[in-house]
């Protein structure tokens, strides 16, 4: 037993000394944690040798109190100073006695929960090991006065349950042995003792209160915690990229045409297929030919302008924009091409160019953004030699027809639509 305790004390002292020389601001945990704490506990004790024949305490003897101040160098090692008080009184079939015991110790502390990576299975249960040296005082006043001064070696283990970032519930078991103990624990007899003797066992329950301005104490700072959070964020980003918002079979991060109509045929980049390169998706063109045009019999096609006009005015032709942008997306310029073709084929027609924005941001800003989007489309048509007098810009501002909390829905209202006159 003596060798084991001496080994623990030596190892603890060397560990503490080594820990103090480490770089406190290590990359694994940083320095954004509290280091100081106050420990208060109380419970029971059991002294063994030395006891005077005919004197004994109860098997579980009340009582013991302990007050400590602890400083953690990092999330694994630290040290603490603590003061202890024990009361020894007679048990069954014992002569009466009442002695008081006081001690003061300096101990090294090892956060065994972090060393053994408890965080892999729990983040609310911890384990501390502690060992150190100190001085002890034993005193008996009645019926005879006795007083003793001793050195002590101690080692113990403390279980922790985290109640909050500021408080933990603790349970501790500590063994203390004494050197140069002259009086027995009952104070009734004395005798020379230069070696290690007088084991004392303490069992306590208490609270640890953490001090400092940071959110967490070193007891509950996990190595690479931020790294794992970063990995989780990366996985989340990958999952988001693999979403297919427009259901065209192409993941969003590869999709160059984010608003493909449902069921439309697309290429590997999510773009609507346009085999004849007329800037109108084949599915859209086929739909128009079927519903809004008539075959003349000589191979040419005559479009029903009234029906096409109703298609445009119904919002089936639109130009889309990215968030907070007034420049159309590269894949949505076909809406501008469609209107350009219509205006060229109908030189007397004019068109309202209506800009829209989603609900994110201030309404006044979104009004300006919707106007900027409509003016961008107008400028493109003017540069394509459409007379500006035929083009009327309307800033419709925020479109409130969709759920503002849905990213996919907001994409549908960041657009420019047209009303042909």
Can you characterise this structure?
The chain is α+β, with helices and mostly antiparallel strands. It has helices at 2-21, 112-115, 225-241, 282-292, 305-313, 334-345, 363-383, 407-413, and strands at 36-47, 61-72, 77-89, 98-111, 125-140, 146-162, 167-179, 196-211, 293-295, 301-303, 319-320, 351-357, 391-398, 415-420. The strands form three sheets. It has an eight-stranded antiparallel β-barrel with strand order 1-2-3-4-5-6-7-8. A four-stranded mixed β-sheet has the order 11-14-12-13. The protein has a two-stranded antiparallel ribbon with strand order 9-10.
In CATH, the architecture of the largest domain is Beta Barrel
Task: Indicate the mean pLDDT.
Answer: 84
| Count of DSSP-assigned helices | 8
- How many domains would you count in the coordinates? 2
Described by strand count, sense and barrel closure, the largest sheet is: 8 strands, antiparallel, barrel
Order of helices and strands: HEEEEHEEEEHHEEHEHEHEHE
**N-to-C terminal Cα separation, in Å?**
101 Å
> Helix/strand/pairing class, anyone?
alpha+beta
State Rg. 41 Å
CATH-defined topology of the largest domain: Porin
Query: What is the CATH C-level name of the largest domain?
Result: Mainly Beta
Tally of strands: 14
Question: In what range is the share of β-strand residues?
Answer: 25-35%
Low-confidence stretches: 1-29
Order the strands across the largest sheet as they lie in space. 1-2-3-4-5-6-7-8
What global shape is seen? rod-shaped
The residue fraction in helices comes out at 10-25%
């Amino acid at each position: 037993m003596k060798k084991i305790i001496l080994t623990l004390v030596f190892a603890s002292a060397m560990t503490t000394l080594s820990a103090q020389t480490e770089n406190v601001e290590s990359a694994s945990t940083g320095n954004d944690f509290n280091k100081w704490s106050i420990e208060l506990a109380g419970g029971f004790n059991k002294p063994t040798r030395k006891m005077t024949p005919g004197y004994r305490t109860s098997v579980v003897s009340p009582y013991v109190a302990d007050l400590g101040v602890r400083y953690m160098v990092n999330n694994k090692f630290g040290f603490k100073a603590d003061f202890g008080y024990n009361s020894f009184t007679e048990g069954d079939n014992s002569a009466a006695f009442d002695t008081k015991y006081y001690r003061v110790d300096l101990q090294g502390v090892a956060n065994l929960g972090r060393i053994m990576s408890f965080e892999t299975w729990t983040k609310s249960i911890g384990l501390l090991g502690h060992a150190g040296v100190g001085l002890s005082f034993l005193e008996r006043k009645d019926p005879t006065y006795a007083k003793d001064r001793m050195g002590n070696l101690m080692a113990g283990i403390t279980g922790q349950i985290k109640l909050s970032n500021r408080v933990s519930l603790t349970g501790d078991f500590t063994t203390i042995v004494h050197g140069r103990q002259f009086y027995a624990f009952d104070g009734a007899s004395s005798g020379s003792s230069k070696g290690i003797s007088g084991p004392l066992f303490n069992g306590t329950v208490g609270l640890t209160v953490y001090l400092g301005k940071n959110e967490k104490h070193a007891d509950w700072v996990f190595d690479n915690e931020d790294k794992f959070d970063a990995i989780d964020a990366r996985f989340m980003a990958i999952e988001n990229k693999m979403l297919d918002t427009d259901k065209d079979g192409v993941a969003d991060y590869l999709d160059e045409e984010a608003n493909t109509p449902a069921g439309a045929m697309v290429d590997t980049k999510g773009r609507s297929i346009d085999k004849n390169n007329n800037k109108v998706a084949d599915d859209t063109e086929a739909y128009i030919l079927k519903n809004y045009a008539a075959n003349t019999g000589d191979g040419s096609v005559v479009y029903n302008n009234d029906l096409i006009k109703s298609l445009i005015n119904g919002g089936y032709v639109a130009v889309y924009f990215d968030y907070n942008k007034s420049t159309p997306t590269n894949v949505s310029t076909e809406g501008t091409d469609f209107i350009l073709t219509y205006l060229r084929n109908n030189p007397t027609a004019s068109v309202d160019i209506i800009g829209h924005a989603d609900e994110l941001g201030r309404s006044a800003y979104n009004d300006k953004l919707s106007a900027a989007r409509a003016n961008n489309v107008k400028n493109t048509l003017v540069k394509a030699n459409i007379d500006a007098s035929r083009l009327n810009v309307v800033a419709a501002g925020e479109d409130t027809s969709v759920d503002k909390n849905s990213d996919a829905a907001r994409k549908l209202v960041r657009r420019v639509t047209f009303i042909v006159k």
